[in-house]
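Collaboration report, partner site 2.

Our partner group contributed sequences for two proteins of shared interest, and the home lab folded both. The records are reproduced in the order in which they were received, starting with the first partner submission.
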Amino acid sequence: MIVHHKNLVSLIGYCKEDDHMALVYEFMSNGNLRQHLFCMDDATNTTVLNWNQRLQIAADAAQGLDYLHNGCKPPIVHRDLKPSNILLTENMRAKIADFGLSRAFSTDTSTSSISTTLAGTPGYIDPELHASGTLNKKSDVYSFGIILFELITGLSVQIKNTERIMHIVEWVTPMIEEGDIRKIIDPRLGNDFDVNAAWKAVEIAMWCAQRTSKQRPDISQVIAELKGCIGRNDENVQSEMTSLEMASYSYTLPEAR
């Protein structure tokens, strides 16, 4: 009840009648992000999110996460960030929902961590958490990176092909190496996106989805990069921006679970 931010879904109250209990949240008229990205065969949902909407949704979610990580005392880690937990207003602005798995830290440093039982949704769970059971704010940053890849590609975290199920990072990595952004971008967008902004978004997503937490940015850094990405898309400018440190990373692909 004390957590309030424009990019977090507000808890209105609760109801209890005999054995029936419910939490009441503000109404989000456009449902959740998963419905708009992956349920296009639904007759009630025939529109495709445009490129600018996708960037804005990512920025909104990052700002909500930044409030949890850096604006709350003690900081809060969400633990289950995924498209179905990102809800959309009538103007397609995003708010993070479902804090059922959230945990608070005793300190506000980015390196603080707690040992915890594994929780979250397969594919979005920090691979470092799988290995060590140690949770910190960068665990949410990893999940955010996976969601950003889903926004960019229009594909879900687990991609099925004829042979096996691939994790989205495993699928996108060779595409990045090929250097053809049009093989990465959701084909439903056609040519309605800025190539430079798209590459920037891919860099941000890969930065967030690094194997270890030390290699990932704080979510406040992600917000700054996304704002630049949105500005580049809106203005369609060719000016150079600060590049992310991509060349030296060594990435081990997570298993699809």
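Second partner submission, folded after the first:
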Amino acid sequence: MNLVESLQDLLGSEQVLTGELAAPYLTDWRGRFQGQAQAVVRPASAEEVAKVVKLCALHRAPVVPSGGNTSLCGAATPDQSGQAVVISLARMNQVRSIDTDNDTMVVEAGCILQSLQEAARGAGRLFPLSLAAEGSCTIGGNLATNAGGTQVLRYGNARELTLGLEVVTAEGEIWHGLRGLRKDNTGYDLRDLYIGSEGTLGIITAAAMKLYPLPVAQRTAMLALNTLEDAVAFLSRARAGFGASLTGFEVMEGHVLEGVVKLYPQQRIPFDGPSAKSPWFALLELSDSESAEHAQERFETVLGAAIEDGLITDAAIAENIAQSKAMWHLRESIPLSEAELGKSIKHDVSIPISVIAAFVRTTNAALQASFPGIKHIIFGHLGDGNLHYNVANAPDQTEEDLMNRQYEVYQIVHDSVHAHQGSISAEHGVGQLKRDELPRYKSELELTLMKRIKRALDPDNLMNPGKILQS
């Protein structure tokens, strides 16, 4: 009996997809990577995942975990060999339990992020991980890439929101580590090792996640600014004025938002006159544990002082939930508008906040020197130093021309990131896209230690091979 037949015998033929049925799992979300596989399997439990992994190990077949297939780096796409088995966790989508006394929830890896948020809210709690793809991405993928999103400033990224994991190892064993403990000093932190490993060390099948009290009141504001330096200066002031209540601080170039409203005329920048044409905008959110009146008073005090001092030129404060959602929708529409307007070269980088303006200024100049007229598309999570620094073709350049020179663009941007003590991947991961870039920016010792861990936990290199590390 061959591997596909064995998998059909284990899971049932309807849960083993081949041919056209498997095709949607073999192309990444951006359409940049295309792979082949013996089959796509859809197990319904950690026990079934473990049995699938054991079968694949017996047949020396690589396994590629798949969640919502929203990876931006080709991390969930198999290679062209056709030997891999893609393990879709889509059927493992249950919220197993919610413990409001311990403020934890146990969820399966295939659970859609938005479903976690809704389940938490239904129990009177907040699950704060939030990002543009939350309606389709899964918590397993979020953990595999250590996702960040818009509230890292207050709550941290996926790693910091996780207390315990259930993981299927490369040998097909199940590590039952779903402990909802804030303190556990009993050895190496395996949880943190698997989070961010993009399925190269094992397959996360469930997780125990932190919950928080729902805020009593939230306030959202869009700010108009003249420079990125002013945005950084106001961020420092906002942290001092709001403390832990500051849950989000996004920044966007003015022309980027203009592109959104031009493409989606039902949306609008919430300013009239010159402020609507500001070079930069910021979006911030305050979550208050006291009252709506207290939140409003703090907002007006901090924003008013910043306007008087010239740090911000104008502020639009959302007066209701609909206006708040409209502001966030404007920000979250940027990636969609980018996709509709054409191809661009995307960078997900993190920079120390103190030098982020210098990074943008220096990198813009370097790109213009090599590619005159190239377009900068800059937005991101200023509160945690994460910029989506993207570039599109110049007016006299076709998209194809730009893509043919994308690695020259990568080198300019990533060299600048490195020079400013940053990271070439903040929240999207490495996958296939940035795998060959790592040796340029990681020390030889760092890569050696990573390879030792990989060999120790996956000696046969069957867990999502070709991702993060070069073979």
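Feedback sent to the partner group on the second submission included the following. The chain has four domains: 3-88, 95-213, 217-335, 349-428. The mean pLDDT is 93.
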